[in-house]
Batch of 3 targets.
Target 1
Amino acid sequence: MLKNDQPLIFELSREGRTGYSLPEMDVPQVDLSELIPAEYTREEAPELPEVSELDIMRHYTALSKRNHGVDSGFYPLGSCTMKYNPKINENVARFNGFAHLHPLQETEGVQGALELMYDLQEHLKEITGMDEVTLQPAAGAHGEWTGLMMIRAYHEANGDTKRTKVIVPDSAHGTNPASATVAGFETVTVKSDENGLVDMEDLKRVVGDDTAALMLTNPNTLGLFEENILEMASIIHQAGGKLYYDGANLNAVMSKARPGDMGFDVVHLNLHKTFTGPHGGGGPGSGPVGVKSDLIPYLPKPVLIKRDEEYLFEYDRPQSIGRVKPYYGNFGINVRAYTYIRTMGPDGLKAVTENAVINANYMMRRLAPHFDLPYDRHCKHEFVISGKRQKKLGVRTLDIAKRLLDFGYHPPTIYFPLNVEECMMIEPTETESKETIDAFIDAMIQIAKETEENPEIVQEAPHTTVIKRLDETLAARKPVLRYTKED
């Protein structure tokens, strides 16, 4: 039994009830035993719940109300850009001409869809300052791996096989070293300086003739713009390496600064973040990759091109790293991103960046008196505060996150980046109103006061949720992933 007397779907089951009605079979019945080996068939029917359609609808509707999403509440997850997903994007993605396409249709019959994807590539080239873009990668980390594989292919094509190391900052997203490792590289960490930026002297120390690339997001994970980016690009390029841009934080500079102009050679974008595709829970995503001209030959194939007013896929790419995803990317997310870009226009995209930065700085300054601010300087789209002050009173950052649930908010990202003790990384995005932002700030300030006056209420939170605090170690090591019928 779930809390609040919400029964499991199996507990609603009553023998003989059905939630569906199938028409009589109007085709010859096939004996599947002749087609499927016996070891793959059941001798008895599975013990599935027997419920009516009404039971099913009420059960799952009730469960859905317990889920937190962008449409139901504020989602301040730093580095995730959980902005509102405009419903016009959903409407366009559901147009029959898009939603009912089959991926194996001949290109002659899907010229409209191909034109949309080609035009999206052109817009992303302009936004990033890259020379070519592929929409094939399925998500951000997949885009990272794709970009790194192209960098690897570039070095190998030039006979530069000694370049086996990828430099990542100590504040990097965890996917950066993971993607580099999967792509066959070793990772080298470069430290941050006292201002939260890449330590230039340490960068000069770790770069060398074995450097394949530096992976960087700008602004960085602390929400700070890497003001030495041009010098960093010069150092990496002079050493023979490439500069890789993690596009997770593009929402902070979109239409204001382009990675290509900063010296980056490869960039991946998170269409499901910056360009308002719905995400969370493992997908769906889209991670297009853009490259400068010298990396174009290594793009995954096929490459979508326009020739004589016709859109088609080109497969004759002898230096390509090959296909990285079946078909050509997540088309529905691409449609949503294209709709967003065309709806906003260049002025609208600039306003996105401006409002995201204003919202983050406003929230940071209002919270600064109540929490530790490790880097007291102008931030971009997100910022980091620390709960070290509260920890001295026996309240951890995890407790603060749990207490926020009682106020109806999804907690911010906590304990990341790793180079800030008791870290909370907050990203309000541009879509939240001042009223919403103020209400969240007020909740954070109240929690800070509770920590001083009544720490137990924070330590024992949450108090109002259906499920109270879990044994997180046990939940991680021994998760219960399926229903087991009790005797």
Target 2
Amino acid sequence: MSKLPGWLGRLGAELTDIGERLDQRRAEADAEAGSDAGPEDTVTDHVPPPPTYAPSVAARPDPVAAIPWGMRVAAEAGWRLLVLAGTLWVLMRIISAVQLVVLAFVAALLVTAMLQPTVVRLRRLGLPRGLATAVTAVLGFVVMGLVGWFVVWQVMDNLDTLSDRVRDGIDELKRWLLDSPFHVTESQINDIAKNLSDTIGTNTEEITSAGLQGVTVMVEVLTGLLLAMFSTLFLLYDGKRIWQWVLRLVPAQARPGVAGAGPRAWRTLTAYVRGTVIVALIDAIFIGLGIYFLDVPMAVPLAVFIFLFAFIPLVGAVVSGALAVVVSLVTQGVFTALMVLLVVLAVQQIEGHILQPFILGRAVRVHPLAVVLSVAAGGMIAGIGGAVVAVPLVAVTNTVVGYLRAYGQEESRRRSPAPHGATAHEVAPVRAPGSPPKAADLPADRGKEGPAGPGGPGGSGESREG
């Protein structure tokens, strides 16, 4: 019994020592955890874990991942479209501010595309570049001036006759209205004429201001003509150097593609202008002959108007044909007007289905919907000049975009790594049945055969294809 208290004392001391060592180790572990964690991670009390019966709460996803894929694509495309729309708006504002200069330069491009083949032919005959350019420009401007003078001369020469015919047509229309089943009385017709006269008399100031505005327009037209003439002269003489200077403004990475698209765009524009001139000349000749044989006055000026309006696709043919029909209706009566309408429709059908596909070709073929929309947009932006240049601009843009797309695909294919293995087998070209195999298709050991073998000069290898 004397030994029991000593044993219990030693046991209590050992338990006390073990407890102190456990507390020391716990303090060291807490100190290490506190040094690794940030200020926001240090806590004084341990948070107990949630009970097992508590419902699980899903973590919140990333906001980008929460947006649907289609909406993200639409947003990415939307802000890029807004940037493009803003760029186009600024560009259109700049073009509107210098509209006269832009239209004059575009007209110079069209005239240059029409006259440049003549310069090339004269250069081939041995004329220097300056002399060939001067001869072509002088002859072209003289011909255009003579055409304009001829139209004005014909209109002024037949103006008295046309006014008499118009007066007779109005009297005939008045008699037809009196005898028609519409029960129109002569007093009503006189009231309409009096109202028209009073309207003209009360709006004299507006008519005068319109006349002054017309004088301003004439000054702008003459300025544009002078700009177009000088631009045409320099484009004919130094067009190649101007194009090389423009290429230096293009970034170096895009320069090869633009350099390849430029000549193709110019060929498209030249083909369009030349084809349009030929088609317009055929329309003017045949419709003018029909009008002449139907004894309609001013047949030649009407033919010239038909030639000029043919440069406005779709709309120009309708306007010029309607003008011819109205003149024939007023001067010769309903029967002659119907005959003129048949002539116009027949010639325009032949033009649309035979002449344009044959003369213009596929290079400048534009869908009719694109023609209508481009002519309408060009007319709204820049009037008659915009309607004239809209379709060639669309044709040239179509050619440039098609070439750049093909060029980009070819560049990406050339820069991509060479296929190998199963991929090479899938993309390998298939040889046509009956065609001789190429040297690249032959095995490596067969390419080393002698002259009589397939890879030699006498075989069916690559040498035969060369």
Target 3
Amino acid sequence: MAMPQAAGHASLMDGVYRRQRHIYDLTRKYYLLGRDGLIGGLNVPEGGAVLELGCGTGRNLALVSDHFPKARLFGLDISREMLSTARRRMERENIDARLAEADASSFDAEALFGQARFERVFISYALSMIPPWRETIAAGLDCVAPGGSLHIVDFGRQERLPGWFRSGLRRWLLAFHVIPRDSLREALESECEKRGASLRFDSSFRGYAVRAIVELPAVNDTRLQ
């Protein structure tokens, strides 16, 4: 049974995307910067499993399929409306991907997909829309296979943009229930310290977007000893 907070967020997201999902990809390409670079940099090993948290319309998973045709694809989203669009996309483009309705901050990958670990997990512009975003990072890392990695792209602090643009952008994003996570780097550093993982963190477009890669040690890595 869904927890009240998760059920409320699912209802909110369904309301937001019930109509927007039909034009989502067309409009978002102009301001969700860095998504394609993240996908191109996944470097999925042959036959590796890839999980997207907050897969939305399936646009990103379809692009992963183009870049890494032998990858095994999985995705979850809390919005039933978005998943219906994603499933139609997978069928239309003949992409073999397993999709599930679930809360990205608290899910059981084994129960959802029959698989507990994935070589690559990624989150594209979803943390800024998930209230328990720190828990989502932890949940994502929990299902990364040893030696695998978590990849994130999202809105940054916009620290090198003009103040008027930054404040206007944030007001506009808030209207869509989007809140940039200004302490993202610190949260990732904390998780890395707990797990003996390494972090690469980059800011681009004058701070408009950030991209992070958390690499978990392999089983025989000396950091685990």
